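Suppose you are handed a protein chain with no further information: no name, no annotation, nothing but its sequence. What can you learn? This example shows the usual starting point.
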Amino acid sequence: SIAVLNSFFGIWIAKGRNGLGEALRMPLMYGAVGGLAASFFGWELPRILMEPIDMLGAMAIPLMLVTLGLQLRNLVVSDVVPASVAVLVRIGGGFVCALLFLWLLGAEGLDRKVLLLYSVMPPAVMNAVIAERYQTDSALVASAITLGTLVSVVAIPAVLVFAG
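A reasonable first move is to predict its three-dimensional structure. Written in structure tokens, the prediction is:
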């Protein structure tokens, strides 16, 4: 669900003009709706179809990491300041929003811990793929992802201690 939202809004923003139409044309949106319907109705694909789909799915993350690595080759020191701001907004803003939702909803226990933990996760590699596809500043996005991953090494344990 988060991946679908990230992809939908990420494409909409990155594309700019006609971004909504572009986001609605993405197969991910239809796949998500189809997956939800299949889950709701208890449908299953035959094994002969699921096996290649599983294999393609297993390749997705390594391919995105290769894409991220290719974008990092263009990393310049001047990208560090805007990338730091992006990471602060993503991790710090995510944590503040999570605290606000927890306060409003009164969530406790495991729900509280999961929301707090998810709020400080680094920016997703999918953002690098979207930035590359729509010719935005992909080197800056790659810098933010890398810096966010480094920051999360400290932020995640801190939140785990905080969530107790």
